[in-house]
């Protein structure tokens, strides 16, 4: 039986109102939500952190404000049609694959996993394959690390409550402390690498895609055989960073 809109479920209605606030405000703060919904700040904070836990919102590590999360970006990908992130990314992925001669992917972060959203395969005989629709541990991938680097220390520890990490090859970081140190390096360089950490003989470089409000909504990566990609790290880093910046500018 359909439920009349005259009798909304309050918690769902409040969650919807918070997400709709993003239409006019690219960054939400606890005080804003508290005033808009007429609830206590502690209640507003719980609502925001609940939406954050589902990746519908993401907290900026520097400003502590909340913006669109990767799950919201994926929802947008599904419903935005011709102006979707996926469509915007497609042309850039094609150019990125051509310029680097390696396979290019668009990925988002969900919890402690990365999800391959779109990709363009290299024309090289020996190449990284397309992985559209697949998932993997974020801490073992270049895209995962560059998106984890966007999280605050508290949020990272919420997602990784244990001190040991599982997944990947023997080259992958295996402790939370090692991951935190790796993420500091990512913040300094502006891009992340995967040196045979997710799979043997696979090398990848990734950069975050940020909208004009500075919020990361995904990542672009290029990947290929280690013996080839390792010789052109600077080229790959510059190419993927430039493509990610251009895609972010198109998102508005």
UniProtKB/TrEMBL annotation:
Pfam families: HTH_IclR, IclR_C. Residues 9-70 form the HTH iclR-type domain. It comes from the Bacteria. Residues 71-252 form the IclR-ED domain. Keywords: DNA-binding, Transcription, Transcription regulation. GO terms for molecular function: DNA binding; DNA-binding transcription factor activity. The keyword NADP does not apply. PROSITE patterns: HTH_ICLR, ICLR_ED. InterPro entries: GAF-like_dom_sf, HTH_MetabolicPath_Reg, Tscrpt_reg_IclR_C, Tscrpt_reg_IclR_N, WH-like_DNA-bd_sf, WH_DNA-bd_sf. SMART domains: HTH_ICLR. GO terms for biological process: negative regulation of DNA-templated transcription. PANTHER family: HELIX-TURN-HELIX TRANSCRIPTIONAL REGULATOR, ICLR FAMILY, HTH-TYPE TRANSCRIPTIONAL REGULATOR RV1719. This is IclR family transcriptional regulator. It comes from Streptomyces cacaoi.
């Amino acid at each position: 039986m359909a439920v009349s809109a005259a009798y909304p479920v309050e918690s769902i209605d409040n969650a919807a109102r918070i997400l709709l606030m993003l239409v006019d405000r690219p960054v939400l703060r606890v005080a804003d939500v508290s005033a808009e919904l007429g609830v206590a700040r502690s209640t507003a904070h719980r609502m925001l952190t609940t939406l954050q836990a589902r990746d519908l919102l993401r907290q900026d590590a520097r400003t502590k404000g909340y913006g669109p999360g990767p799950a919201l970006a994926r929802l947008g990908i599904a419903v935005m049609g011709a102006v979707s992130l996926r469509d915007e990314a497609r042309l850039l992925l094609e150019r990125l694959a051509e310029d680097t001669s390696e396979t290019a992917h668009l990925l988002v972060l969900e919890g402690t996993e990365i999800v391959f959203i779109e990709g363009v395969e290299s024309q090289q005989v020996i190449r990284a394959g397309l992985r559209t629709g697949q998932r993997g541990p974020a801490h073992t991938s270049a895209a995962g690390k560059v998106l984890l680097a966007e999280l605050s220390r508290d949020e990272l520890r919420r997602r990784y409550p244990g001190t040991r990490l599982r997944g990947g090859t023997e080259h992958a970081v295996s402790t939370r402390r090692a991951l935190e140190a790796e993420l500091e390096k990512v913040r300094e360089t502006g891009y992340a690498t995967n040196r045979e950490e997710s799979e043997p003989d696979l090398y990848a470089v990734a950069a975050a895609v940020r909208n004009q409000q500075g919020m990361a909504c995904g990542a672009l990566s290029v990947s290929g055989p280690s013996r080839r990609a390792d010789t052109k790290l600077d080229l790959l880093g510059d190419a993927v960073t430039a493509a990610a910046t251009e895609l972010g500018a198109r998102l508005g």
